[in-house]
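BUG: 3D viewer hangs when loading the predicted structure for this chain

Environment: internal workstation, default settings.
Expected: structure renders.
Actual: progress bar stalls at 90%.

Input used:
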Amino acid sequence: MQKSIHKCDREETLSDSVYQQLKTDITHWKYRPGDRLKEKSIAERFGVSRTPIREALRRLEQENLLVHAPQHGYSTRALDLEELNELYQVRIALEELGAALAAQSGLDGNARSILEDLCKFWREPEADIFESGDPNMVYVDESFHERLALAGGNRYLHGSLKALNERIRIIRITDFGSAERSEVTYKQHQEILKAVMEGDVGKARLRMREHIVESQSHVSANALRALARLHEIDIGSIDNWRS
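Structure tokens produced before the viewer hung:
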């Protein structure tokens, strides 16, 4: 019995490790849209059995990073501009509400602590987050938006935004391909925080909306260019990416 428990724990640990690495590979475009993920190849790569591989792949499917087809197995999702636009419509609504609630918080209790930490970081951020092409900038950016939503005090808003970020990260990572875009993001975050700290709900909403709309424009254009460079993908994967 004890051996079975240890075996189960080990498989869960292996599955978590495989899941995290594959998720990083997918969101950093090491797998192209439409690429198949073969259990045998992945098992050989990680030196594990297929059991933790299957569990990791199922988790990635649940997060909409993979699709599964009978007799075909798992593959990365094809990119769809219409879907991206719909997700950004939701993001704009969530982000505007988050900024408004944070501005309305009156800087009380937990909100003050979160906002002061954000202000401190975005006044003097670490220089290396502006390095050209650094994919980790997307995580820094997500943290800003999620913590701002948390300052607003609505747990469901925060959870919804976090889930949405997981869904669009694979596309949003293309928004930080240059130091210039990171610098623009830095300045826009400062403007949003200024409006929030002043308690100006209208301006906080406006600055946030401008920020997200500009991001959407860059993400869509960059994703199209990235797909165009991936000559080996099926043309069906980019049919829906129309300007």
